Amino acid sequence: MIHDWLVPDWPAPANVHALATTRHGGVSVGPYASLNLGDHVGDDGAAVAVNRRMLQARLPTQPVWLKQVHGSGIADAGHVLGVPEADGSVARLPNIVCAVLTADCLPVLLCDRAGTVVAAAHAGWRGLADGVIEAAVKAMAVEAGETLAWLGPAIGPRAFEVGPEVRQIFMEHDPAAALAFIPSAHAGKWLADIYLLARQRLGRMGVTQVFGGAYCTFSDEERFYSYRRDGVTGRMASLVWLAACRD
Questions:
Q1: How many Å is the Cα radius of gyration of the chain?
Q2: Cis preceding-peptide flag for 34 (omega within 30 of 0)
Q3: In a domain, 106, yes or no
Q4: Is residue 66 part of a domain?
Q5: Domain assignment of residue 232, yes or no
Q6: pLDDT tens, residue by residue, 41-60
Q7: How far is Cα 141 from Cα 124, in angstroms, rounded to an integer?
Q8: Alpha-carbon torsion 91, 97, 101, 106, what sign?
């Protein structure tokens, strides 16, 4: 199997580990080919289980999976039972793996410079507008200036077409959000830059060390799943955790 892992290009401390999967390296077939990690998208359950075991071989423990609902809830990954309903998680204990699943929505991984806390957020436009990134940063409870963020694979600014109501929602929160929208070729529609919107939200909180944001899940069919492009498709994972201290 060929695993095409993405390793965040951020200056995180040595005890912060992170990765993001692509669609490569699993056993799923058809529209889910091949490393689908989503167990809620219609794929064969046995195949998803094998894919998750392949991923877990790279991790210290099983990821804390979430029931994502496009909101702003943040779970404490070190103190959960089952699969919590949330769109992000935070961890302060070693070997607790925060994880989010995406296929066009924006995965945001976070850590602090001291390596004491990590977080992951699932930021589709609804969650982004609802404040999921702000909620994740607040849950970390560290100075914003000491926080690092990495923006993983999401739908790019040339492919993410939205209606005027989406643009209005973001502009009501911050007029500067207008910079993240350009008119689409389709009358009345706009192309949204979800990466810029996330950077703006982070910047307003004082988080200026932001990395990543150079992918487009929609246009790179060979490498990424895209719900907007395909409808029936798999899900990729973005994960972050603190390594255990060694004497």
A1: 17
A2: yes
A3: yes
A4: yes
A5: yes
A6: 999 999 999 999 999 999 99
A7: 23
A8: positive
Joined tokens for residue 144 = 């914003």
Structural contact between residues 140 and 110, judged by C-beta atoms closer than 8 angstroms: yes
Q: Supply 122's token pair.
A: 């699932």
Helices 132-140 & 194-205, crossing angle to 10 degrees? Answer: 40
Question: How many domains is the chain partitioned into structurally?
Answer: 1
Which tens digits make up the pLDDT trace of 208-220? 999 999 999 999 9
Distance CA 154, CA 109 (A): 13
pTM over 0.70: yes
Which residues form the domain of 231?
Answer: 16-158+209-242
Q: Residue 47 maps to which CATH number?
A: 3.60.140.10
* Two tokens, residue 65: 């999976």
Across the beta sheet with 181-183, what order do the strands follow?
A: 161-162, 190-192, 181-183
Nearby residues of 219 by Cβ (< 8 Å), 6 or more positions away: 156, 158, 159
For 173-198, how does the pLDDT look when each residue is reduced to its tens digit (9 = 90+)? 999 999 999 999 999 999 999 999 99
